[in-house]
């Protein structure tokens, strides 16, 4: 019995303690009292909505005087209260509808209210009243509100870079707190002509606070790309276009006082950006400059310096640092001709960041000496342009001596220096031969043509050609009567014709997909007699559907166009390119048979 009473008292104490904690948390929660304007600039023929919102109920609310404005509605009061996960959410709003009485710059002064014995005040806000507008706010549509509150911006790191210097483009979607974005999809991706481009994947779209034209906004980074200009002068960066799905608040409220939202979709574009690319200076350009732009280190190393003949060693020519690592040629070492040198193996370890490429590239040479002796690998130089200082820099490697300890001796002497790719002539002992002065000749006419084997072959050949000709004629006649088979062959030839350029570019991602897209467009242009400027996926789908083309073939054609667009900013493997080429051949063949 005593144990039961103890448990009851413990339970009641726990309830009392949790209630006190909840009450204390609610009491210590911050009080907010704000003033929100429907717009900061309006025409004299428009209306202004002013909301005074508090997150805790209070008394003695006093609005401002609203000088230079006339109150046409209000105050109207709305209250919203809810419990979510044991936590109370409360909101109370006083709303006024105002009409300006004059043009100019005016201030909505502060309002006051008493909450828990303390007086809270709103922050005064300025309003600009202009001349009458064509579309007053009473006629503003949901699309108008979305246009005012959505902005896609392309931020370019450098507007005046050098040739082959990294330029970073960051695409940000700015969203006003007045609307809410639910989803988006890309409509048109830039092709970055005259640039070498590398996308930096955005793994997580996190909303951040920022400002746009001096007003508070939230923004999300949608795309990052690093560009290396490949020509000097004025270069255009094509715009990125998106379709954004937005929830826009209306002036209507539900039964509980909550604002009602309307969904719409808007197309936004980052706009075309132009940069001025400076050419690399000619003054001070080294003779061995191969196009490297950045800040680099250079070295030449070998795996060993002493070995025996017929053994192998590795010589590595390496460039490391930050810059256009994939866009220049590595210098080649000058090696003695007595050393057998195999074609180099290229290696790279490169990461792309917002500031550009960083890492290293190298050529690994396998060298096999044939004779005993000492072989020097002379010092070689590597030159690059440093855009930070605007000057050319040259780095020279150390000279390396290779000593072959055991092996045969070169009879012509040990070659101790490099040659200009000249091969030594090794004597074999059989350089001189005597001319044969007793030829085996026969008199002309000694052999008879009539009655010979060649005579009978030429005589019977026309008789053997007669059945071959008959068989060939019947075969061609059978092929001509096969209408369906001829259609298939014609369609396959047509597919090979339009995709011949793309097949030549297999392995080169950008050139392959440009050629593939052009081949698909040229095929439709020839078959459907429509201009390239009129192409769109919806129009292509509609026209092919009218021609009674199978839906699977239509979808296959559209998916190929989508792959061509995605390949411009996504990594595609050689296997994927081969699959897309085979799919394109099949789709064009099927379409041609149906059209």
Structure, explained:
The chain has 595 residues and is α+β, with helices and mostly antiparallel strands. The chain has four domains: 33-137, Immunoglobulin-like; 143-277, no CATH class; 294-404, Immunoglobulin-like, CATH 2.60.40; 484-594, Four Helix Bundle (Hemerythrin (Met), subunit A) (Up-down Bundle). Helix content is 26%, strand content 37%. The protein contains nine helices and 30 strands. The protein has helices at residues 2-28, 142-149, 453-481, 483-498, 500-504, 509-528, 537-546, 551-566, 574-594, and strands spanning 33-37, 41-43, 48-54, 59-62, 69-84, 87-100, 104-108, 112-115, 118-121, 125-130, 150-156, 167-175, 180-188, 195-200, 208-212, 215-229, 233-237, 241-253, 259-269, 273-277, 294-302, 306-307, 313-323, 339-341, 345-353, 356-369, 373-377, 381-386, 391-396, 400-404. The strands form nine sheets. Strands 11, 12, 14, 15 and 16 form a five-stranded antiparallel β-sheet that branches. Strands 21, 23, 24, 25 and 26 form a five-stranded antiparallel β-sheet that branches. Helix 6 (509-528) packs parallel to helix 9 (574-594) and helix 7 runs antiparallel to helix 8 (551-566). Mean pLDDT is 80; it is low at 1-28 and 419-433.
């Amino acid at each position: 019995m005593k144990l039961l009473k103890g448990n009851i008292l413990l339970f009641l104490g726990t309830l009392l303690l949790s209630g006190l904690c909840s009450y204390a948390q609610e009491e210590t929660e911050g009080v907010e009292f704000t003033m929100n304007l429907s717009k900061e600039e309006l025409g004299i023929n428009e209306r202004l909505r002013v909301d005074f919102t508090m997150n805790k109920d209070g008394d003695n609310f006093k609005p401002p005087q609203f000088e230079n404005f006339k109150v046409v509605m209000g105050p109207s009061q709305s209250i919203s209260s809810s419990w979510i996960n044991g936590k109370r959410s409360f909101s109370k709003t006083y709303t006024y509808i105002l009409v300006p009485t004059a043009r100019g710059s005016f201030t909505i002064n502060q309002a006051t209210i008493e909450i828990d014995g303390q007086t809270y005040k709103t922050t005064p806000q300025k309003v600009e009243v202009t001349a009458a507008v064509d579309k007053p706010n009473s006629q503003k549509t949901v699309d108008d509100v979305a246009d005012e509150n959505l902005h896609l911006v392309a931020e370019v790191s450098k507007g005046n870079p050098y040739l082959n210097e990294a330029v970073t483009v960051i695409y940000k979607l700015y969203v006003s707190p007045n609307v809410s974005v639910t989803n988006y999809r890309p409509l048109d991706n830039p092709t970055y002509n005259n640039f070498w481009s590398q996308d930096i994947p955005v793994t997580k779209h996190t909303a951040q606070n920022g400002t746009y034209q001096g007003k508070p906004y939230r923004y999300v980074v949608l795309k990052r790309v690093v560009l290396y200009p490949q020509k000097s002068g004025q270069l255009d960066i094509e715009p990125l276009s998106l379709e954004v799905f937005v929830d826009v608040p209306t002036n209507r409220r539900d039964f509980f006082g909550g604002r009602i939202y309307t969904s719409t979709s808007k197309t936004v574009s980052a706009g075309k950006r132009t940069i001025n690319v400076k050419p690399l200076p000619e003054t001070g350009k080294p003779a061995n400059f191969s196009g490297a732009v950045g800040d680099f280190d250079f070295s030449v190393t070998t795996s060993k310096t002493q070995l025996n003949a017929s053994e192998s060693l590795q010589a590595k020519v390496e460039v490391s640092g930050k810059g256009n690592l994939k866009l220049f040629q590595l210098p080649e070492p000058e090696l003695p001709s007595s050393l057998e040198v195999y074609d180099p193996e290229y290696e790279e370890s490169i990461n792309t960041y917002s500031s550009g490429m960083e890492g290293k590239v190298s050529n690994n040479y396998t060298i096999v000496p044939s004779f005993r002796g000492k072989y020097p690998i002379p010092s070689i130089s590597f030159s690059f342009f440093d855009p930070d200082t605007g000057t050319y820099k040259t780095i020279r490697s150390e000279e390396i001596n290779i000593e072959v300890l055991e092996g045969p001796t070169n009879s012509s002497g040990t070659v101790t220096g490099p040659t200009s790719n000249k091969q030594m002539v090794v004597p074999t002992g059989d350089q001189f031969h005597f001319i044969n002065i007793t030829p085996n000749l026969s008199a002309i006419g000694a052999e008879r043509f009539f009655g010979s084997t060649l005579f009978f072959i030429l005589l019977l050949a026309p008789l053997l050609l007669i059945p071959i000709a008959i068989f060939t004629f019947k075969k061609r006649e059978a092929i001509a009567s096969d209408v369906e088979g001829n259609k298939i062959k014609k369609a396959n030839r047509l597919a090979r014709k339009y995709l011949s350029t793309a097949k030549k570019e297999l392995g080169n991602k950008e050139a392959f997909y440009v050629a593939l897209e052009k081949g698909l467009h040229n095929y439709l242009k020839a078959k459907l007699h429509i201009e390239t400027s009129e192409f769109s996926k919806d129009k292509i789908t509609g026209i092919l559907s009218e021609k009674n083309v199978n839906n699977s073939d239509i979808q296959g054609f559209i998916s190929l166009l989508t792959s061509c667009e995605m390949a411009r900013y996504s990594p595609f493997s050689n296997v994927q390119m081969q699959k897309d080429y085979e799919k394109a051949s099949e789709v064009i063949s099927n379409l041609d048979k149906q059209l």
